């Protein structure tokens, strides 16, 4: 089984210019899933976590649409096949072409 | 994201490294310091409190410490004046395990002495000193300061608990002075293993004991390269001079409209000359009377002269932050400052005449100079 990570535009260059990264392995906690993402995209890690291992305060991680902050944080459960979105908090907007 | 415009400096040009709340800019001036062009923005959206130019060992390297509200901060460098920047995979300045701390902001980058061209120093928030011995590839925490028994009593100032000043003594290779808001100034005489406070005479208006051993809200300190015992200090209320390398401080707020302010720049050759930008008060951190004035002393603080030629003198409620004022090393010295209103001013004659060389920048946090 696999878990899919949706990578925000500002970090895609550090993820091989991918907007979605699928990582294989058994589901478990968010921390487990992130560890597999770091193995695939090591440069993303320090942009999402502090050196204390905390999720940066202005990064939200949604698991199947639910904000992980209110679902157990890094211990939040992740099901097989889950979609995990990394989203800069209260951000967005782009210049219209 | 905006597309950066690049500068192409010639040998001998002045380049200003301008850090703002929304990115960094490189501003090139010709040798006469009359015409200017603006490059950038670099790191758009990130606050750039710290920049530095490293010309040791044949380098033309610019360092910047942008901090993204979302993704944190790390050090980046460019060897081609901003056309390409390093983008480290891992954060290069970070607290080691066991400290229970996380980097909030990079406040200061200082290349080491000429005799140690691979050494750099970095001051951060929460207040700590990092050192690199491999030209910025890897960094380590200076444990001697981090483990100082007074550190738990340092309190954050309005800008956070920041280490904003790093002074390498030009004559004594083991002496380094740092300043923290609010912890005060500290000095090491053994290269960083041990530290002691060095604030005798500096007031702390916000404490019951107005003259504590440490805990002053020092805003900026400058040390003369020609006469290292001469130092100037801009405090959170208080303007000081030292003639003994900071062992004691004398109030020299003689003739200034306020002794509150942030920046302090010392003349590159004359130890009696320095520049400041007084602000009205900590409750109203703007230039007094709506007049943008730089003050200069030529006699070690016995008197300060307002310098306003070319600066707005009406409705100019500007703020110049602690790293927002600097001087170059040319003769006569060029003086430069940026405001929170996004204006950048330059003087090619030590402050006699000013001109605005950029406007509409994001709020300016820091200005450094390089002669390339």
Defining traits:
heterodimer; A: 97 residues; alpha+beta; five-stranded mixed beta sheet; 5 strands; globular; B: 372 residues; mainly beta; four-stranded antiparallel beta sheet; 1% helix
**Overall helicity of chain B:** under 10%
In total, the number of strands of chain A is 5
Strand line-up in the sheet with most strands of chain A: 2-1-5-3-4
Beta content of chain A comes to 15-25%
Order of helices and strands of chain A: EEHHEEE
Intertermini distance of chain A: 39 Å
* Rg of chain A (C-alpha, Å): 13 Å
Q: Which chains have the largest interface?
A: A-B, 19 and 18 residues
What kind of sheet is the major sheet of chain B? Answer: 4 strands, antiparallel
Cα shape of chain A: globular
Number of helices of chain A: 2
Poorly predicted runs of chain B: none
Q: What fraction, in percent, of the residue positions of chain A are helical? A: 10-25%
Distance between the termini of chain B: 29 Å
Number of helices of chain B: 1
Structure description:
The complex is a heterodimer of chains A (97) and B (372). With 97 residues, chain A is of the alpha+beta class. Chain A is built from 2 helices and 5 strands; from the N terminus they run E-E-H-H-E-E-E. Chain A has a 5-stranded mixed beta sheet with strand order 2-1-5-3-4, with helices on one face. Chain A is globular, with a radius of gyration of 13 Å. The model of chain B has no long low-confidence stretch (mean pLDDT 97). In chain B, the strands form 8 sheets. In chain B, strands 3-2-1-30 form a 4-stranded antiparallel beta sheet, with no helix packed on it. Chain B is mainly β and 372 residues long. The interface between A and B is medium-sized, with 19 and 18 residues.
